[in-house]
Amino acid sequence: MLYAEVILPLPLSVTFTYGVPREMSAAVKPGHRVLVQFGAKKFYTAIVESLTNEAPKGYEVKDIVMALDEQPILRRPQMQLWQWVAEYYLCSVGDVFKAAVPAGLKVESETFIERNPDYEEPLDSRLSEREVVIMQTLDHADKKMTVAAIEKATGFTNVSATAAKMLEKGAIIISEKLVERYTSRKVTYVAVTAERGDSDALHAAFDKVKGASKQERAFITLLELSGYMRRDAPVREVTREELLDRSGVSTAILRAMVEKGLIKIYSKEVNRFMPQELPTGELPVLSEAQSRALDEVHRSWIEHDVTLLHGVTSSGKTELYIHLINFVLRNGRQALYLVPEIALTTQLTRRLQRVFGDKVVIYHSKFSDNDRVDIYRRILGSREPMVVIGARSSVFLPFADLGLVIVDEEHESSYKQQDPAPRYNGRDTAMVLARMHGAKTLLGSATPAVDTYFKALNGKYGLVSLTRRYSGVELPSIEIVDTTTARKQGGMKGVLAPRTVSLVKEAISDGGQAILFLNRRGYAPVAVCKQCAWTPKCEHCDVSLTYHKRVDRLVCHYCGAVYPLPTVCPACKEPAIEVFGYGTERMEDEVDGAFPDAKTLRMDLDTTRNKDGYENIIGDFSSGKADILVGTQMVTKGLDFGRVKAVGIVNADALINQPDFRASERAFNMMSQVAGRAGRRDSRGVVAIQTRQPSHPLMAYVMAHDYSGFYNEEIEERRKFNYPPFTRLIYIYLKHRDPRALDELAVAYGRRLRQLFGNRVFGPEEPLVGRVQTLYIRKLMLKIEVNASMSKVKDIMRATYEEMHSSGMQAVKGSIVYYDVDPC
Ligand code: ADP
Ligand code: ZN
Ligand code: ZN
């Protein structure tokens, strides 16, 4: 008998063994998906890791329920990468599987079940009473049902287990087509039924629409759109949407025309990768500085696998990337171009498609499941040259032959996945991926991560610099606006200081645009009773709630819970609840008031939830439909708007005053980056930084665009306090519903870790937000030597946790532990 070791999409640190029924053996190979039952209740899509002839001992092995693939859905380097991620980031391969494969390729318990039409119940009925009820329910429903739907209809629990038995008896089918959540994209087209050239038929058609003006209009529009009357070109396919849009008629009219036999409506699967415009294939002409940098990058790659391109904002790093990509594609290989924020793909896609046409592939989480499956399969199915632009999860795509990895804005902390596991850094994982393919990596940034710059200065990475903007325009002039003084002078009504307002006014009246950055979404971050100081808190988390005006609700930014804003204080019964502070939503209101003639757009999580959110906002702002863009850190990253003259950083204090060792780095980067959006093309921009700490040392570096000054000071701090890049950090989080049990556990855990790791252990401490989603949290920190073996560390950590489990300590029960390696 053959057995398969499979990876389940679960946080389990081991693989599981299943039997391979003989008839499936051709379709069960490493990298193939199989459907398996796990536990009594659930079915999962698992990935076959390996095959063996050796029967596992000590337990009864279940058989694979169904083989799902004829070809593997993984390439060999991917499996290796998964293992690296699991090992390095201290999580399970199952966690990686979950993140790496689009949901459309996974089935969970939404398995669809239907009656097997070939099943005839034998006389000595082998079905149990419960099974018979399920069969009847299926017959009745007349269609495939999910387990949940069956449970609802029958009132039974645990239907999965019963279904597994019924499957064995051949009574039901678990259908693959529905099991995969994937469906292909279809587009509906409309065409004239009369053959082109058959003028009799066409005349007859015209007669039939005479007198029905809407039908006539639709018919003529269709002829025009399709180019039917032209002799020199083939008839173009016209989508129904396009026709409705252009003719202004309703679908009912089209249906009437179908009945008359004038037109036909048909649908077709379409390729999702059609570019909007035809590529020119022309590369941007590089400036002298850019050409030099390009040569240097190539030279640097002779010695280094990874090179850092340190180029000031708007120096044209993207243009350089385009040349490098071109080089790789011409060599018949593939390129991965990582960006930290989905918003950035919007602008880039157009810039790259103009050069590379349909070789450009975009991948990120705002795509539907189906789209992601399509893209995944396209890459899996070919070795053709292509460039994938994507957010961090694109490192898991099934590349056949990567020649180049670009990580743009490499300093961005959004490359790090925070929750859930795998808590991986897309940048660092991409470098490992590149190594597996023998590809070179280029990291790009105007404000490199301190860790990255350290490695570049110490020869671990190559280093190439671009010190001037492409346009030759100087970097923006930066003003510090002291909000304490502004408030004292009484000129500040809301969150904008008079100086900021006048800079924005000037920019707009000059025909330019402005960006205002506030790192907080919603309307107001605090609500409070003026009478008794009561403030509403989330029931599940230890955080105060943010008021969102448009939905008129209080929202927890940690768990998403929503509450009404009480009109009367629940504590003192006075109608004295007020909201304080500013989020982007409120700033937008203020901006509307301060600039009544200007049009404002807002870009934050709340305005970009749907797929086209970014595209619409970025498109409208680019094309000048708005004058002012208000937003959270989304507006700070890599966007290229030609007409932005003024930038306001509205609350720099919120950036500076963060309690972790990366706070300065993050604040410096964010301020420099958002400032870098100003004055990118024609004339020098201005930046106002509003702060209560005008003499904070960071301000001087930001004002002088002095990255090295900032770096030199910061690296000394890191050295002194033994922080990265001089050590590697691992945060250990413990969670529990009961705070006392948690404390007991955390203290014991810390003590045990100290016995093993000595003074490399810090804590436990309560993090800034001490409870999220009803679980209390404690944090321990481990500072490990950079060259320590992670697999050893992992083994020790796992052993320690297991040891605590078997120690009989009550508090371990119901606790959760997870690790954050290289926290950002
Ligand atoms: P960065 O990524 O370094 O911030 P970009 O690549 O976005 O800078 O370039 C800034 C602006 O300058 C863009 O509008 C870009 O089109 C323009 N630009 C840069 N280099 C060139 C070039 N060689 N030819 C034409 N335009 C360029
Ligand atoms: Zn009160
Ligand atoms: Zn909450």
Low-confidence runs:
176-182
What class, by secondary structure content? alpha/beta
Bound molecules: adenosine-5'-diphosphate, zinc ion
The first-to-last residue Cα distance is: 48 Å
The gross shape turns out to be globular
Secondary structure: helix percent: 25-40%
User: What is the C-alpha radius of gyration, as a whole number of Å?
Assistant: 30 Å
The portion of residues forming beta strands comes to 15-25%
Instruction: Calculate the mean pLDDT score and round it.
Output: 89
SS summary, helix count: 26
Topology of this structure?
Blueprint: E1 2-7, E2 16-20, E3 33-38, E4 42-52, E5 66-67, H1 76-88, H2 93-100, E6 112-115, H3 129-141, E7 145-146, H4 147-154, H5 159-168, E8 172-174, H6 176-179, E9 186-192, H7 199-209, H8 213-226, E10 238-239, H9 240-247, H10 251-259, E11 263-269, H11 288-303, E12 306-311, H12 317-330, E13 334-338, H13 342-356, E14 360-363, H14 369-380, E15 387-390, E16 402-408, H15 426-437, E17 440-445, H16 450-457, E18 462-466, E19 477-482, H17 483-488, H18 498-509, E20 513-517, E21 526-529, E22 546-548, E23 553-555, E24 562-564, E25 577-580, H19 584-594, E26 600-603, H20 613-622, E27 628-631, E28 644-649, H21 652-656, H22 663-675, E29 686-691, H23 697-703, H24 707-720, E30 727-736, H25 739-757, E31 761-765, E32 771-772, E33 775-785, H26 790-806, E34 816-821
Parallel strand pairs: 12-17, 12-18, 13-15, 13-16, 14-15, 16-17, 19-29, 20-27, 20-28, 26-27, 28-29
Antiparallel strand pairs: 1-2, 1-4, 3-4, 3-5, 6-7, 6-8, 9-10, 9-11, 21-25, 22-23, 23-24, 30-33, 30-34, 31-33, 32-33
Helix pairs in contact: 1-2, 1-15, 8-9, 11-12, 13-20, 22-23, 25-26
One zinc ion binds at residues 529, 531-532, 534, 569, 571-572, 574, 576.
